[in-house]
Amino acid sequence: MLKNWNEKEVKYLKKHYKNRGAKYIADKLGRTRSSVVTKAAKLNISYNGHRRWEQWEDNYLRRHYHDRKIESISRVLKRTRSAILGRAYNMKLTESNFVRWTEEEKNKLRQLYPDRQYTIEQIAKMLNKPRYGILQQAYNLKLNRPHPQHKWTKEEINYLAENYLTKSAGEMAKDLSMTLSAVTHKIGRLGLRVREKGRSWSEEEKEFIKQNYKKIPTKEIAQRLNRTVNSIITIVGKLGVSASRPLPWSQEEKDFIIKNYQQLSIEEISKALNRSRNAVAALASKLKLTKKKSMRQYME
Fold first, then answer.
1. Within this chain, do residues 210 and 184 fall inside the same structural domain, yes or no?
2. Calpha distance 113→45 (Å, rounded)
3. In sequence order, what DSSP letters do the residues of 162-213 get, joined into one string?
4. DSSP 294
5. Is residue 298, in this structure, part of any structural domain at all?
6. Tens-level pLDDT at each residue, the chain (300 residues)
């Protein structure tokens, strides 16, 4: 049977979950993280902690902080603009030897920035500021650089009509010496539909998905195949892999969990059955299995 929560444990959960999170509570009470999360959800308690920065995020930020807009980085990392700027400051990626902008410099920027005859690099050189400093100050001053309107010729339009089914928007943009956004905007105005060519799926990848979809998390499948989660979700329909319900548990799998739940960790069972950790924990809960652990002492 599942171990019931006593009044003392519930009190401790209410006091510390909001700021400490599931792992802290689980360690203190000798419970699993999943049981703590489930109980907190029933009590309508949310964790207010911040998501930690991973190494790949720091690497991405370090590589692109000075050549991409903050909004672009924010979309990739799925973090707020303030989080990006704060992390960049902690990593010492912001302007070194910061010097305040004078009103004269700001007015000069207001004059130069909207004029596309000057590149960002040229403006930075004229104002003796780093490129990022120009972009940051332009953002603060709410300045925009309007895109020039290109007058499409009949030959260019005919090229799009003749090639949009066989070439990607990027290829056509390169052939026409135009930006990708200009081409995609025009084909949309013309009522044409074009999709970027994606990497083709190998038979090995398809077989891996057939064998593992719904057994391991979709995110993990995407990481192993170096694909996006959306691409995995798209291909499973074409492969006829049902996404409507989880793969049913066989009696052999259930017997294995019942027999080994006390001796093996959830991770070991998950690996042995090629199932996700959450799936194993959910079935164990349904079978009313529990890990026998002594109650750890905890502080009020």
1. no
2. 48
3. HHTTTS-HHHHHHHHT--HHHHHHHHHHTT----PPPPPPPHHHHHHHHHHB
4. P
5. no
6. 457 889 999 999 888 888 777 778 888 888 887 778 778 877 878 766 666 777 888 888 887 877 778 888 888 887 777 778 878 877 877 654 445 788 999 999 999 988 878 888 889 899 988 877 787 788 778 888 776 667 788 888 888 888 877 777 777 888 887 777 778 778 877 877 655 456 678 888 888 888 888 778 888 888 888 787 777 877 877 777 754 556 678 888 888 888 888 888 888 888 888 787 778 888 888 888 876 643 343 334
The span from the CA of 281 to the CA of 269, in Å, is 10
> What are the structure tokens assigned to 209, written together?
């998905």
What domain range includes position 11? 7-42
Classify residue 146: in a domain, yes or no: no
136 and 107 within one domain? yes
Reported residue count of the chain is 300
Q: How many structural domains are present in the chain?
A: 6
| Residue 212, domain member (yes or no) | yes
